[in-house]
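Tutorial, part two.
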Amino acid sequence: MYSQSINSFIQDIQHIESDMSLSYLPISSSGFKFSNTGRRGTKYFYVSLSQMVSVLNDIRDQLPKFLPNTQYVEKNWRDLFGENLTDDISNALSTVQTLPFFNLINKIIYKSNELTIPFNDKQMPLSEEYLNIAIEYLTLQMLDEKKQLESLLDKNKLSVGADVVLGENIIYYGAPGTGKSHHLNELTEGDRKIVTVFHPDTQNSDFIGSLKPTNISGAVTYAFRPGPFTTALLEALKNPEQNVYLVIEEINRAPAAAVFGELFQLLDRENGASKYEIDFTDPDMQAYINEQLKAAGLDECSKLSIPANLSLLATMNSSDQAVMPLDTAFKRRWSFRYMKLDFDNPAVSSQNLQIMTTQGVYYITWKDFANKVINHQLKEMKVPEDRLIGPFFLNSTELSNSDTSNEAISGKLFVYLWDDVLRHKGRNIIFDKSIGTFGELHEQFIGGKKSVFSEVIESLIISNSNTADDSTGVAEVDE
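Running the prediction step on this input gives:
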């Protein structure tokens, strides 16, 4: 990986023979300034360091789509950028200046990996390893520049510690059971965090806080009770040397834009902090925050903003039927991270399931049953990926023995498949066509005397079973 500063990085890139120029703006702007070919008059464009990291992450996350297109073809790359870049500004820029944007990414990958092959404006060296190294290099530059931010921050904003990760708004999404919540728990381990769960009745006053009755010495009075946002904000303001996270589980189960209300404006970030400040609309909230800051020996706030050490992390399951759509303006203020179906994760249960088929009882591990049987058939029927079964859809406790696993499969997995996934696809994709109601399905499966699966599912179970009687290929049935 390239080991010099970003300025040296750009200087070396400028020595690459190319029709398009590239320079770097200083820390006050912190980004890449690049040009088109200049054949119809040179024009210059700008993309920030964090936006470029987001672009490289998007390409890495969708690498199978990009790999067949390492040779530049304008329409192909315009479509790839338009369909896969999650940062709205980068997306818009790439679709109107496709070749210059392609060229910028090309140079960053080339130089950060210190490649020695001849550089080609229209041939991008793409691989997961190259992308990881480019992302790591740019991320390190962001961390280095963060140390210089204190002198550039507004006087009303607190400086951040050298070890603080600059604040981000990130939504983690994927199929149910992919470990989104577990990932956030690991990501924020050891840091200060406030966790909340959105639901259809969540309101702005729940999120921010509001005046509520309280009993003081037998007298009922009203006091401001902070919501999770206000609590997280105060944690960040009081502890500028530490990372603080506001974790929002199931962000799309509530009307998120309405829940955020005027805080919506604060989600635009620059150098980790809110790019814009807003006036307090709730004087009780302002009074409460300033009272807490004063007690901690800090200056009071006259405006509301998100400090650079406060990140907002959220989870989202887009397959849930009870979800609320996120509007475009709200979504573009967040980065999105897809959680893939990772059945190779060593934390996935390898518990054997005892499954009755028309050929007798077979034993198959949970991960093979979920991935090689259920998901395999759902994919064959073109069921969207976010409706597949994640490796942690059932947890290790639910799968600890045959009794609890059967109850979890019937009462949790089958309910999800029956009501949510197969409602419009046809339930005989998975289940025997003779089963007409979920009650019949549950009773027949728990009884364990008769198969509940379709012929296709049975064949997949049998072919992926792992412990069968040597003489018959079928395990003995318990009487």
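The chain is about 40% helix and 15% strand. In part three we will examine how such features are distributed along the chain.
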